[in-house]
Design a protein that fits this description.
It is a single chain. The protein is α/β, with parallel strands linked by helices. It has 2 domains: 1-64, no CATH class; 106-399 and 463-540, Amidase signature (AS) enzymes (Alpha-Beta Complex), CATH 3.90.1300.10. The protein has helices at 2-12, 18-32, 41-61, 113-121, 127-145, 153-168, 211-218, 258-265, 282-288, 322-332, 365-368, 376-386, 398-401, 407-418, 420-424, 439-446, 451-472, 487-494, 523-536; strands spanning 148-151, 180-184, 222-227, 237-238, 241-242, 244-245, 248-252, 272-276, 291-294, 314-319, 361-364, 391-394, 477-481, 498-505, 511-517. Helix 8 (258-265) runs parallel beside helix 9 and helix 17 (451-472) crosses helix 18.
């Protein structure tokens, strides 16, 4: 940072005297060392007028800060020219109509979406009753987990009553009709606070409804709560505390979709909506032992959601099963043409793999070989082999196509731009964490990223997109240990979809997950593959004992 300030100072202090100019040249030369540049005195001298002109432009821009939701005019496209599926097939959901109310009503907390839908369709319970049940669980356990920022009880009861009235008239919107859920509190909902999990925004009210909320409202789902996120979508610490892991209250739930994963895991809600920029669906889903879908970049409009990174932010469901995730995704995917990075994409989900012998399944042998021989991840391969799949050992291309860490350049530059106002007005001091690895320092440090380096990082990213797309085209599903190697950074940069699901526990009793990577816009295949695994196992049916 020293050189950055020297550069700014040298420009502002330029004067006519040769001594001052000489000093300025030396300061600029020193500052340029930060960028691995070396210019002669004559070259720097020729730059001084241009630097001053640039500074004047910057100062003018700083007089008025763009709001967080002001559109970035350049959209990331994972696969330019690729034909995105457009033909829509009707999805037939398997609703088990024989489902009965449990003798112990607390068991409702862990019913699947199809089971709850069956109860509602057959009028064995009303949406109002179901909503009251989950709101009471949110009230009972929300403080324990520190996962609820705002209860939306009035909205919930209004939506539940509407659902009951419609179902009574024979108007059925689908398997989410009358089902309670929660939203990560970076999505705007009229009449509610949208806090982004951080003190500078804890009283913020945004007068619009986010696209994903409108999609769920159209599906008849019932919003019960705005759930916690780590401040400005980082980690699990927010202005009200630190969200806990339902399996171990001494641990945080990871982040940043902390509340969404914790509430779903503990049966406080049937499902929740999360977001991921880099790990924020996958990581808390792993920690809390639930199933998370991070869909292809751009398949869900982000309008009305907090912007952290225009080219990396993605919206996805956090559920207890792959089938539930498929149901939710079927209703939230799409665009309203208000997010330049979003597209219209057809989700043709059948829930079945007709012939596993024809499914091209691979596992990243270079990652798996680092695991202990008794690690739960190995058993995943056995399950898929038992289903008839030929599971091919492959080398995930990791450092061969990702030779240097461009993720930090991209995410740091874009997030610093999104929250420039905080930095320049010194409101970053209000953010919950102030250590060197958290947003305030990341935003400050990012001010030294030159535009040229950001652009070149994205040019290297385009090469990564092309090469990983080529690798993935050989397979339908690639199985990887969730936190192995660079695959998380790589697939977030390229926009590839993943499903993360629980597969058991480690020796310390903590949930362990596996990740299935799919081809762009092919969420249907990885969700069906995940469902097939869950149909053969019961890991997703294990629930934290404290919340049963």
């Amino acid at each position: 940072m020293r050189y950055f300030f020297l550069l700014a100072f040298s420009i502002s202090c330029m004067a006519a005297s040769s001594q001052t100019k000489s000093d300025s040249i030396k300061l600029v030369q020193d500052a340029l060392k930060l960028y691995d540049l070396s210019f002669t005195e004559a070259e720097v001298d020729s730059m001084l007028d241009g630097l001053k002109e640039n500074k004047d432009v910057y100062y003018k821009m700083h007089q008025l800060f763009p709001p967080n939701d002001l559109t970035y005019p350049f959209a990331f496209v994972p696969a330019p020219g690729m034909r995105v599926p457009a033909r829509r097939e009707r999805i037939s959901w398997d609703i088990p109509n024989q489902t009965q109310l449990p003798a112990n009503r607390d068991e409702l907390a862990f019913y699947s979406i199809p089971q709850l839908a069956a109860l509602l369709i057959n009028k064995r319970i009303s949406s109002v009753e179901l909503t009251k049940f989950f709101i009471e669980r949110l009230k009972k356990y929300g403080d324990t987990l520190q996962c609820v920022i705002s209860l939306t009880e009035d909205i919930a009861m209004q939506q539940a009553m509407q659902a009951d009235e419609e179902i009574a008239r024979g108007v059925y919107r689908g398997p989410l009709h009358g089902i309670p859920y929660g939203l990560k509190d970076l999505f705007a909902v009229k009449g509610t606070k949208t806090t982004w999990g951080s003190t500078p925004y804890k009283d913020q009210v945004i007068d619009e409804d986010a696209f994903v909320y409108k999609q769920l409202r159209g599906a008849g789902a019932v919003l019960c709560a705005k759930l916690s996120l780590g401040a400005l979508a980082y980690d699990n610490k927010w202005f009200g505390g630190a969200t806990k892991n339902p399996w171990n209250l001494k641990q945080g739930s990871s982040g940043s979709s902390a509340g969404s994963a914790a509430a779903t895991s503990a049966g406080l809600l049937p499902f929740a909506i999360g977001t991921e920029t880099w790990g924020s669906i996958v990581s808390p889903s792993t920690r809390c032992g639930v199933t998370g879908l991070r869909p292809t970049f751009g398949t869900v409009s982000r309008k009305g959601g907090m912007v952290l990174s225009w080219s990396l932010d993605k919206i996805g469901p956090i559920c207890r099963s792959a089938e539930d995730a498929a149901i939710v995704y079927a209703f939230i995917h799409g665009t309203d043409n208000n997010d330049p990075g979003s597209i219209r994409h057809t989700f043709n989900y059948t829930g079945k793999i007709e012939d596993f012998k024809k499914l091209r399944v691979a596992y990243a042998g270079n990652y798996f070989k680092r695991l202990a021989a008794d690690a739960p991840e190995w058993k995943v391969l056995d399950v898929y082999r038992s289903l008839g799949a030929e599971v091919k050992n492959v080398v995930f291309p990791d450092s061969t196509i990702y030779p240097f860490d461009i993720m930090n350049v991209v995410i740091s530059a874009e997030s610093a731009a999104a929250f420039d106002e905080l930095t320049r007005n010194n409101r970053d001091e209000l953010i919950e964490r102030q250590d060197k690895n958290f947003w305030p320092n990341i935003f400050r440090t990012a001010r030294t990223i030159p535009a040229v380096e950001y652009i070149n990082a994205n040019r290297w990213r385009s090469k990564l997109c092309k090469e990983l797309r080529g690798f993935m085209s050989n397979f339908d599903v690639v199985i990887v240990p969730t936190f192995a190697g660079n695959q998380s950074a790589m697939t977030n940069l390229t926009g590839h979809p993943v499903v993360c699901m629980p597969i058991g526990f480690n020796k310390n009793g903590a949930p362990v997950s596996i990740t299935l990577i799919g081809n762009l816009y092919d969420e249907a295949t990885i969700l069906a593959a995940a469902k097939a695994f869950q149909d053969k196992t019961d890991h997703h049916q294990q629930h934290p004992p404290l919340f049963k």
